[in-house]
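Narrative of activities, Objective 1.

The group set out to show that a structural description can be obtained from nothing but a protein's sequence at a throughput compatible with the screening campaign. Below is one input-output pair from the validation batch, recorded exactly as produced.
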Amino acid sequence: MTFLDKLDWLMAEHGLNKRTFSMKSGIPYTTIDGFWKKGYENAKVSTLKKVAQYFNVTLDFLIYDEETISPENFYGGEEKALVRSWRQADEKTRRKVAIDLEDYGFVYIPKEKENQQTA
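Output recorded for this entry:
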């Protein structure tokens, strides 16, 4: 996946378009839009750092092409532990945690619905 593929994916995961991402991240809209129009090869490191910090991903994840996107590929140590714990939790525990996180925009899809969506 390229930088733009990852940025598209991250923005979609956070429900952002270019304008809202610009406003929330503090990166000028023209810079973000320029990634798609002019390319991102000459992007400033400081801008890439802002992108990484906003989405809580590593610079390595953003700039290196990777075949798959999964939390193990780009989250830091604490986030990896949380993802592992989440994956090991039973449905009852996941639902309880999801209710606590709902105020932060977290959307939980129970396994049975998740399986229906992928079928």
